[in-house]
Design goal:
Blueprint: H1 2-24, H2 31-41, H3 45-57, H4 65-76, E1 82-87, E2 96-101, H5 110-122, H6 130-142
Antiparallel strand pairs: 1-2
Helix pairs in contact: 2-3, 3-4, 4-5, 5-6
Length: about 150
Amino acid sequence: MIRIIVIAILISTLTACSRLQQLTCSSHDNPTIASLMKQACSGDKHVQFTLGDMFERGDGVVQDEKRARAYYEQAATPTSGTSYIYVPGAGSVAGFTMPVTTGTSHPGHAEAMRRLANMLMDGRGGKQDTKRAQTLVGRADALGGRQAHQYLN
């Protein structure tokens, strides 16, 4: 029963990640924007933040708060630099998970956390979520950036 629940959670998480990736890794007519999108999809937090800012303000692109929020989400999300894959068992050897280095670790982009928190507080680009906004403000403050809580309404 627990195995079924874990599989269901994994599938829903992967589906959500896939939707986010479709939104942020799509192509663009402008080659410069397309190049930035490619860099963002490879995990560059600064480029993810820059694209979020561009889509939020409509700077060089059509203003799109849903897309801005998705880029801020990517930039704000910490990465460990390690992924785990499952290696199935064979014969008498049991299956196991194996760590794989996938890049450098990053605590997340503090300014992206602040911007995402503002969007969450206002319900811009998606559902309003004041609790998550406050959590992001705390994380941004802990990273030593500007005091994020002063920006919340």
